[in-house]
Amino acid sequence: MFIHIGGDVIIPKRELIAIINLNTTESSQITKEFLQLAKVDGLIKETKKGGKFKSCVITDKGVYMSTISAGTLTKREREFSYK
Fold first, then answer.
1. What is the pLDDT of residues 44-67, one digit of tens each?
2. What is the C-alpha to C-alpha distance for residues 48 and 14, in angstroms, rounded to an integer?
3. What is the pLDDT of residues 4-41, one digit of tens each?
4. Threshold 0.90, pTM exceeds
5. What does the longest C-alpha to C-alpha distance in the chain come to?
């Protein structure tokens, strides 16, 4: 299965590690440090150039900044989950 995470970016669900709400990262020093290190290492990819990013999608291939909310992305991830 695949998940559309914004712009023209679709990732395989099996690559998904985490979805982070960027509105809450201001209170988490660890998340701030992670995102800074990922940026320095060139792992950050934007789903829309110059967009207002609402969430961060971490995969085993990279870190994507998305304009779609973490809640919406989580719903998309769960929508096609097999029970």
1. 999 988 889 999 999 999 999 999
2. 23
3. 999 999 999 999 999 999 987 666 888 889 999 999 99
4. no
5. 39
Please work out, in degrees rounded to the nearest 5, the angle formed at the alpha carbon of residue 37 by the alpha carbons of 11 and 46.
Answer: 35
The structure tokens listed for 23 are 């509105």
Domain residue limits, the chain:
2-79
Strands 44-46 and 16-21: unpaired
Count CB atoms within 10 A of the CB of residue 47. Answer: 19
Query: Could you give the CA distance from residue 47 to residue 30 in angstroms, rounded to a whole number?
Result: 23
Which parts of the chain are beta strand (E)?
2-6, 9-12, 16-21, 44-46, 55-59, 63-66
- Which single residue is written with the structure tokens 């299965």? 1
Buried-state track 51-69, b at ≥16 Cβ within 10 A, e below 16: eebbbbbbbeeebbbbebe
